[in-house]
Write a structure and sequence with these properties.
The protein is an all-alpha fold. The protein has 24 helices and no strands.
């Protein structure tokens, strides 16, 4: 009988036809993928997050927060790009991890991505609702606070039916087919880019570099307590890092491109290129926007809900104010379309694999979309948007991209040590010619590859996997020690111990033989350095998040594991395939074979 460990670590079996055969329509070219990625990313980050983080967390140094977040995103995107060139199927990093790390890790990631997409869609809908309401004098908020208050500590103060309606409208457009939703996204994205260019251009005429060096003595008494220490970094380096955690959410969205593997034309080429071009555009825009935001108006006077309309109103530029207002609504609507676009495709992939209910993978023959998955997630996301406030939603969703990057990075490393092929489809098993006579010295030689083995073996593959798993634990322990331990002596001692063991494990990982990936169009350079460094940075940012963010995600994962262990583990397609393969052949079968 197959052990529970075997069930949890079984990997998805792919064939070369998996990247070509699909029930979904292949209609997206490179330009449409870039527009989809840019549109799905440039939303709250431009029109809300930049001003909000500058006001409460980082001050003018918000530009550094965006730069750090951008660097971390690029490091993670390298892994996305390499894996997208290997596995051109729907489902994003869920498929990547399933094909390399195993079923349980893949389910964890897929279930987390579902949570992230649901809450991300709700966050965007809530942002649009709040933006419009604040510009209309809080009419919606005042009415429902008076007539339908919700006096529950962990919920919003009032139900936001407008946010719920926004999600349903976008869901309906998505259900009519990928081409129709992408057309709408393309139009809104072009409007968004035009408005951003207008904001940067108009703001450039009002720049005052003194706003980056305001001494605390010049801050009025009313704002002095919340203005930090003044200057460019009023909240210090800790404020910059804390701001990075929030700015990181603003980069979420580019990974939607990797979910279109079954709808993109020539996905092995277009998906990696689209990811790279999207991040280039997005990073440039965020740098420009965060600079303009803090140069045209003092950081402590920013409006956290609608920064640009407020600033341009104060600068007596009403035309620009309304251009920005309309642009913000279009931009966040585009991001909402992108978020809704990716969510049902993850459910489709997981339903096809049997780890979630198979009905979620049913594709409507007319629209070529998974209508049931779209409707269920839309209603759920709309309900979340109606019941929680914006701050709670941002806290909920912040953890997901960081977890995503760590698992994707692990997946690309494991694939380098695991098999030799142009992708992970139809791969041969690693060489099994290991020396099976083990002594302490031979084990040391194997662990550090003192034999100088050039090609992976079963043993070297296992050593790499175990060392990588241990490295993640050491890195997380170091980050938690630095951020959560209050006693300095214990903090630095434990962090040093974790760091020493982590460096040793990294050396072991780096010493293991890899197969060449020169045949891949896109690949991660200096992979052990890039991936392991990215993991450490992601885990440090995770340690910055508050306890409530961890509790929300733990509750969601608990629900997912209940579904997996009562349904998914038993109905997995891989389980059925392996059961068929393990069935003994009858004598008749043997005769027929020959």
């Amino acid at each position: 009988m197959t052990s529970i460990w075997g069930h949890l670590t079984r990997c998805k079996t792919l064939t070369t036809q998996d990247g070509e055969k699909t029930q979904l329509a292949r209609v997206l070219n490179l330009l449409e993928l870039v527009i989809l990625g840019v549109g799905s990313t440039l939303g709250l980050g431009v029109y809300v997050v930049a001003g909000s983080v500058a006001k409460t967390t980082a001050g003018p140094a918000v530009i550094l927060s965006f730069v750090i977040a951008g660097i971390v995103t690029v490091l993670g995107a390298m892994s996305f790009a390499e894996l997208a060139s290997r596995i051109p199927t729907a489902g994003s990093s869920y498929v990547y991890s399933y094909a390399s790390v195993g079923e349980f890790v893949a389910f964890t990631l897929g279930w987390s991505l579902i949570f992230g997409s649901i809450v991300g869609s709700a966050t965007l809908a809530k942002g649009i609702s709040n933006y419009i309401d604040s510009l209309m004098g809080d009419v919606n908020k005042t009415f429902f606070l008076e007539h339908m208050p919700m006096n529950v500590k962990f919920l919003s103060a009032y139900p936001d039916f407008f946010a719920f309606l926004l999600v349903l409208i976008v869901i309906l457009s998505s259900a009519f087919g990928v081409k129709s939703s992408v057309r709408i996204s393309n139009i809104l994205t072009l409007v968004n880019i035009t408005v951003i260019a207008t904001v940067i251009g108009a703001g450039a005429t009002q720049i005052d570099f003194n706003n980056w060096k305001i001494p605390i003595e010049n801050v009025t008494e009313e704002y002095r307590e919340s203005a930090g220490a003044g200057g460019f970094m009023p909240f210090g380096l800790h404020g910059v890092i804390a701001g990075t955690s929030r700015c990181f959410f603003a980069f979420s969205g580019f990974e939607i491109i990797s979910t279109t593997g079954e709808e993109a034309k020539n996905p092995k080429r277009t998906i990696p290129l689209a990811i790279a071009l999207t991040l280039l555009v997005v990073t440039s825009v965020y740098f420009g926007i965060s600079s303009v935001t803090t140069l045209i108006w003092p950081y402590y006077l920013q409006n956290a809900d609608a920064p640009f309309p407020y600033v341009f109103e104060q600068l007596e530029m009403p035309v620009i104010k309304w251009i920005v207002t309309i642009g913000a609504i279009f931009a966040m609507s585009t991001c909402l379309i992108g978020s809704v676009f990716s969510l049902p495709r993850i459910l489709y992939s997981m339903g096809s694999d049997g780890v979630l209910f198979r009905q979620l993978a049913d594709v409507n023959p007319k629209t070529k979309t998974p209508v049931l998955a779209i409707c269920i997630t839309g209603i759920f996301s709309g309900t979340v948007a109606a019941l929680f406030n914006l701050e709670q939603l941002i806290d909920m969703v912040s953890l997901i991209p960081l977890i995503n990057y760590i698992i994707v990075g692990s997946s690309v490393l494991v694939l380098r040590y695991k098999n030799d092929s142009s992708n992970i489809m139809e791969e041969t098993k690693p060489d099994r010619t290991d020396d099976r006579t083990y002594t302490p010295w031979t084990m040391v030689k194997h662990i550090f590859n003192l034999h100088g083995i050039k090609h992976p073996t079963d043993l070297s593959c296992r050593i790499a996997k175990v060392s990588l798993f241990a490295f993640v634990i050491m890195a997380f322990g170091m980050c938690i020690s630095i951020e959560w331990v209050s006693n300095d002596t214990i903090k630095y001692f434990s962090a040093t111990v974790f760091a020493i063991f982590g460096i040793g494990l990294w050396i072991i990982i780096a010493r293991q033989p890899m197969y060449s990936v020169d045949h891949l169009r896109i690949k991660v350079p200096f992979i052990t350095i890039v991936v392991c460094l990215n993991m450490v940075i992601n885990m440090y940012l995770m340690a910055q998040l508050n306890l409530q963010a961890w509790i929300n995600n733990i509750i969601w994962l608990s629900i997912g594991y209940l579904i997996y262990f009562t349904y998914g583990i038993h109905h997995s397609t891989e389980r059925k395939l392996r059961a068929i393969e393990s069935e003994p052949k009858s004598p008749t079968d043997a005769i027929t074979k020959f």
